[in-house]
Structures
1.
Amino acid sequence: MPSSPIAAGSVTITDAYALEVLGLAAFQNPADAASNQVAIFKSGNRGTPANDDEGFLSFFNDDSTGAQVEFSRLTWIATDVQSGSKDSAITFSTYIANSFAERLRIEGINLGLGTANPAAEYFPAAGAHFRMVAATAASFGFERTDATARKWEIGIVTTGHFDFVDTVHSTSVPRVRITNAGSLVTNSAALATNATDGFLYIPTSAGVPTGVPTAQTGTVAMQYDTTNDDLYIYNAGWVKVALA
């Protein structure tokens, strides 16, 4: 092995690959810069480029027979090759039960899990699963922050409850909690007598309800008749309490 870089043009490759390195390979751009380009991968040299032309990197391992086979793939795609409107995508492909297919795609601002056609910023395909793991037991798995420093957090707190938390300028206020015993709790403090928000709302109807609610095990439906000021509960039929 040479102790200094090999000069360009001094190596002749005659194997099935244009270049094959057996052993550890290291690539370094020694420039003193905050952002260094280390390698360039170029796909094709077509006379007539077309939309969805792609290049890919294959990742090989030994299978049970000892053969080196492709186990994973990283693909870059020119979804629009027009010089004035270029679009692109990156996909990741893996094996599941000996079936090799695309599993993840980043296209524009869209992220597709288990689908090659993501239609929103996140689009899980049928049968795909998405898991978010918080860094610590007390942190949240999902956050959404807007331009006014208001933040919504969703996750499991140290007590085991599932919380929806509204954070405004570093002040966190639980808005909805599903306890680890199955209780549903709104807000985290008593309301002031002159409160205008923070209430639990129930559905209303302008008259006596006649529909049959879809059964949910261990629960009853409720509804308020705004015409007659009656509160109804459905228990094999609508029963009411007159409130006026």
Note: The mean pLDDT is 82.
2.
Amino acid sequence: MNVLGMILAGGEGSRLFPLTRERAKPAVPFGGKYRLIDFVLSNFINSKIYSIYVLTQFKSQSLTEHLHEGWRFSSILSNHFILPVPAQKRTGESWYRGTADAIYQNLNLIEAHDFNLVLIFGADHIYRMDIQQMIEFHRRKRADMTVSALPIPRNEASSFGVIQVNSKQEVIGFEEKPKKPKPIPGKPDESFASMGNYIFNADFLIKTLYEDAALEDSSHDFGKDILTRIFKINRVFAYDFQTNRVPGLSRKEIGYWRDVGTIQAFWEANMDLRNIKPEFDLYNTGWPIKTAPFEGPPAKFVFNKDGRRGQAINSIVGEGSIISGGIVQDSVVGRVVQVDSGAAVINSLIMDGVKIGKNCIIAGQVGIAGSSVLEDNVTLAGQVGIIGHLTIGKGSTIAAKSAVFQSLDPNSFVSGIPARPHKNRLRQDVVINQLPDILNRVRKLEQEISITEES
């Protein structure tokens, strides 16, 4: 059986802003080593599915480079490939108008080959899955379409697309974020949440997408339009993801799936990795998570005396990082990070390339990204975000529930506070209080800059 994988990696990721300001959401770094797309690609490769197209659109350069550096096959086998496919307006003047339209605009990739099944998966979820088990379920049910579904508490299901099934797991209804979610048969306290992963018989998919493209009132989305229309007249089934088993899976990880679509969800998924018995175990060699190789040295921990001991406890520290007399605890630290003497990083997420000076205190759900530099004696405490190529001056304090971002303005306004022109630097001893509307302010400023440049 010939199987084609098509990964939808073109989402803008606006809810994950500002991490997605310079890159597509699937290319956002995760877990001190990986990119978000690595998880679905690893599931495909571990499941022995080797024909894969990755559909891109917004800010795709970083993602394309990552695929080129880490996800290449030999040219000897023509049906073994992982290829990025940029949006090309093949069917008209519009870019992708929805998930179904993204596949429709690339139907030539399916029609030109003899594929039996087409797998359409998202690119930005954290989970392990043996996709062959879902394929076997699809074949056993003689389905036209199968959607993967996760049982979740019914009182939490209103935030998801909810699938209603009968006792045979055949889909008999679908609602997007319903106020009163339908329960799973025999499980009155649970509902099936759609994971946005689909298996189609290839000929059925082609026929369905041509029909959907002709509908003027369609938003061309697999969940909102395709699924809600075809289950009434075709064989559509929900695959229970909680029954999926991969080698080395712990009891704690059964059914683990995270949609990291928001900053809070992204933070929580990173923190799931750090414990002695983590909810998601990166060290499961039976179902490894692969990524592009890092051409640099391993992590290093130096100095060993009271008040100046380089150490990490209940934490993940990425390659090339140096913990030089500081402490990292209950945190995830990315690649090429420097933590200097006397500094403490506690319950925080530090992404690639950040430099933390002497005696800095970074504690309590702090996130730092974008190769920022914190000079000596900086204090960040309690739900603080620092994102951008920024320098925070000596002795500065940024209060809880605040955020500092690099602006696109060449004169650089950071959180509404003027930084030194062209250097993106906050002066020494600055104190920033709560800025609850920071995201809206940054977006508004960038829109004004964009409009000015276009005019």
Note: The two ends are 54 Å apart (CA to CA).
3.
Amino acid sequence: MYGCSVWASVLKTKAGTKKLRSFQRLISIAVTNSFKTASTESLLILSNLIPIDIRVLEIAVLRLLGDKNRPFSKRVAQILSKRFHPTDLLKSAVQPFSVHSSPVPPWDMRSNILRLSQDSFVGIGSFGKNTVRFYATFFRTKDRMGYCYGKTSYSGVVEDTNRADYSGWSEYKQVTHSAILRIFSQIKETRCSGHIEIFSDSKESFSWTNPRSKLSALEIEILTLFYPIKHRCTLFLCPKTSKVAGLELVKGLCALPTDSQVIRDTAPTLLTIKKDIHSSVLNLWNSEWLLSSTGTTTKRFFPTVTDALTLESRLMPSFLSQILTGHSLLNGHQFRLKFGSTSRCACGYADETVDHFLFHCTRFTSRRENFVTVSLNQTGVWPPPLSCIPAMPNLLSPTSHFITSTKRLARRTRTQ
């Protein structure tokens, strides 16, 4: 995968895509112990391997968004815009996802952070006359998150409050940093010359104090404002159970309804972008799977690619892969490929297909009793839908036990 953002142009043609998947197919056959006649799409589903051409697209998109100051192939960028669908994501990511070196020496970045005990009590007033306190709290709901902070003077009077709401997809850490940056910006604008105390109930809001060599752009802004006043600034980290009067007051302000309908958006972080791109990759893979004309039996077990995530990440037994792919030693498949003389089952009632073998063949009625009992308890029906078998671990186990007990698929295989 080295340098795939350079040679990703081979994906422009179907021949290039097929050539890339050809060697990935060999790996999938080894992992799943499947017959060589099984379709590539089914093998990738069972082995939980994202098609390599789609994986190349994912890496190339991250490379494209990673640093806009470095050159990127225009030809590859055109392919990404056609085959990859998060176009709104590409437009919103106007900032490069690069990290920044701190202007503050790492050994001088730690500030005076005091952690209050769980039962500590801090009043809203009664502190030094030249001291200003800020109380910051954060809220998070299903569709939005935000912060609210207040400023109090020596007399305990709330002089200023500020609240901001963000869309639900925003990063919580970014929201906390936005609140702290707003506080330090206000300190600079008002030219506060006394001692400053900042109380927060979120540890993420002070994460920028760790002596790290690489910081986000937002953390750099905070450090730039904080460093000149660090000698007269104290940060307090408050547990949720502590009783800080100022925080309780600010939390009450957060609970009040607001007339403001403005919802802010933070710049997407690298973690958010990676999650969105990976989600889009799975959607692209799932679309191909749904439109695929091959892997009919596997599609009945796994209607979507995410359904196959329930499979354990280890080598698959051969008998199980035969059932999940439909390419097996059963007469129905052997006759279709002209390896057998008839497709009829030895019981004489129907063709020996996967459904007939699992649910109806009278030769294995006694061995199927536990399988039937568990299916009725888990799904309430017999026979169960094929998609329920791998989705329910309690049902997959008796299914595997039934298949092995019949020894129908344990014969010595011929080269397929």
Note: The chain has 17 helices and ten strands.
